[in-house]
Fold this sequence. Notes:
This protein is an all-alpha fold. The protein is built from 23 helices and 2 strands. It is about 70% helix and about 0% strand.
Amino acid sequence: xxxxxxxxxxxxxxxxxxxxxxxxxxxxxxxxxxxxxxxxxxxxxxxxxxxxxxxxxxxxxxxxxxxxxxxxxxxxxxxxxxxxxxxxxxxxxxxxxxxxxxxxxxxxxxxxxxxxxxxxxxxxxxxxxxxxxxxxxxxxxxxxxxxxxxxxxxxxxxxxxxxxxxxxxxxxxxxxxxxxxxxxxxxxxxxxxxxxxxxxxxxxxxxxxxxxxxxxxxxxxxxxxxxxxxxxxxxxxxxxxxxxxxxxxxxxxxxxxxxxxxxxxxxxxxxxxxxxxxxxxxxxxxxxxxxxxxxxxxxxxxxxxxxxxxxxxxxxxxxxxxxxxxxxxxxxxxxxxxxxxxxxxxxxxxxxxxxxxxxxxxxxxxxxxxxxxxxxxxxxxxxxxxxxxxxxxxxxxxxxxxxxxxxxxxxxxxxxxxxxxxxxxxxxxxxxxxxxxxxxxxxxxxxxxxxxxxxxxxxxxxxxxxxxxxxxxxxxxxxxxxxxxxx
Length: 487
């Protein structure tokens, strides 16, 4: 008995192997001799500087540690900043400044909205009302959650949607009857929400910043304006198609253990009735959040609002929650700082790859391999590159590094620029492999229902599904809809 109490847990050799693998990849790339230049079809040379090589080395270490979770994901992000400074890749003032990029603060404010919805009880009301509508079948609960998530991303940023839906999912899962224990239903519910938030966000310019950035590059290079509703016309079929396909995917791969939750509808009605009428805090929270969403949505249509960054607008809600005493100092302790740090590090490595020229070097090297390929292979190679890059760095950066290069190569192969633009935007919105690919992925991870390895594992077939759907739209659907494919 005494020996059992004093026994130490077995040493985690697997963790040590992956930890050292990340270190070895960093050391090998950072200290190896200079790599050859990348050369585009116009003959322009892109030199990989020592700093650029260092950026790729940090990128490899971070990717390895994130996938295998050898240390908490937020701690890996700290290592990204440390390595940039210690190995003189970028100055400390630059490397660590990215940790407080506006995008990181946007995620912080989005999470605060989720906290407020949970604390005031609005989340439970929404969950009970939704369960009353969709009923007791777990397949319909999946579908109801996915449809609501996708629809909301048409009018607000997918990060804010995920932060708002997340506590609602916690309330729904609490009624599943398994406590906090990870289950197939829990994995499908939270991973599915993250995936579908991406699928829905491609449909309008309001779902994420990547759309506006891509259209800006497109206008600059091709000198053609793409309108708000033109984008939606081509993106709505594939966005909603992926939403329903992902529902089928999770019903097959992560089919809930229980087909029904008996008495759920009655229980949801009973719990909703017990909550009584709306409280002062619930009304205030709904008004504040609704106003912020409305103002952010209007930025796409009101020129005067375009000059005001969406981060400043959404942070106003965080301040107002404290002004009206909906939140207090103690609530700050409930912020998942591990997730905030994860995205802080992701922004830092993204900017590092961009500013050192490493990202451009990788993009040119990848795309010129397909410079003599069939037009379809070339378009899909661009889509594949953007999909992989958007899992490691912010999707805005993935678009920024690949789209200009692809649009330069396209005329040589007789490929129309429109198909490159839309194919890139589709895959940039759906990073299914790594948590750092999109904020909804990281927010879903906070549920504790899955590991980073599980997320990566399910992301492989989901990414394959995405590539197949994109290929069908490039070959068949978009040409039928009137999109130019070849010149």
